[in-house]
Amino acid sequence: MSGAVQVWNPDEWELFAFSLLQSRHGPLHVHKIPAAHKGDYGIDYYCPKELVAYQCYAVEEPIDIATRADRQKKKITTDLAKIILNQAEISKLFLGSPIKHWVLIAPLHDSKDVNLHCAKKTGDLRAAKCATLDASFEVAIQDPSAFPSNAVAAGMSALSKVTLSIPFLTQTELESWAAGSSDLLANVTRKLKKRATPDQIEDVVADAIKSFLQGNALLDALRSGAPDLHEKVMSAIRSRARRLQFAGPQTNGSAGEILHTELDALIAAVQASAPSLSIENAEQIAYGSICEWIMRCPLDFPNVQ
């Protein structure tokens, strides 16, 4: 399945982008334009030394690629118009030197349509021969992949809350996993028959597969975007798995009671190890890990026939 997506509110995204830009230009060379007083001129941050202006924009996730691209293009058009409208004041910010680059900083750039739109706006603004803009002025869009991984990791580590959105799992993806994982499917079906009635088992197994795949998607997203957070979560999961494998389930009750106990314990362990991770994500990761334990061992329901 496709990866999980970081959910940003505008303020968090601006702060995160600020840390990335400081890593690129140096803390003394990046300045913020507060939007609270008379607008932001279509610029959130600027670097006079490099003659580059930045605007931050995070769409509300989850959305599809086409919708994301459309909103990014509209944002580019709207804010570049502010550059022209406020060119006299902007020229003062850059001490009379013409701007060479205007960059939209977004959490995710995944459509060439936005590149084409940037190229079109570059041509339009060069043709306008605005004195505030350099003759080689260029419009661009960048996401965190344009920055060093250590800068991205440092910015993620500083966040007070990390929330990831899991994409919808299609029936095709579900069937594809089942076709290529017959042993795991047999394991989870055999074990969950101890919890579900014959008329429920198909739905219960399907839910377990979805939880497993979604949990893995969240862990993959953390591994690439927040490795420190990922390691903390994985440490908690490994610790609980070792204990379960060595000592068995904490209760000798029904399959449902065992699952409740193990889920509660793992959710608490993940939250304790990674308090900045959203409660929803901690629960989703725990569900996915429990389902994986059922598929691969070490979790079974030994006293349930």
Protein model, in words:
This protein is of the alpha/beta class. Strands 2-3-4-5-6 form a 5-stranded mixed sheet. It has 11 helices and 7 strands. It has helices spanning 10-25, 65-85, 87-93, 112-128, 149-157, 171-180, 182-192, 201-225, 227-247, 255-273, 279-296, and strands spanning 5-6, 31-32, 45-47, 52-56, 99-105, 133-142, 164-165. Helix 2 (65-85) packs parallel to helix 4. The two termini are 34 Å apart. Helices cover 57% and strands 10% of the residues. 34% of the residues are buried. The model has no long low-confidence stretch (mean pLDDT 91).
Key traits:
alpha/beta, five-stranded mixed beta sheet, two-stranded antiparallel ribbon, 7 strands
Query: What gap, in angstroms, lies between the N and C termini?
Result: 34 Å
Order of helices and strands: EHEEEHHEHEHEHHHHHH
Q: What share of the residues does DSSP label as strand, in percent?
A: 5-15%
Integer-rounded radius of gyration: 25 Å
Low-confidence stretches: none
SS element count, helices: 11
- Helix/strand structural class: alpha/beta
Strand order of the largest sheet: 2-3-4-5-6
Average of the residue pLDDT scores = 91
What's the story with the biggest beta sheet? 5 strands, mixed
Write down the overall geometry.
elongated
Strand segment tally: 7
- How helical, in percent, are the residues? 55-70%
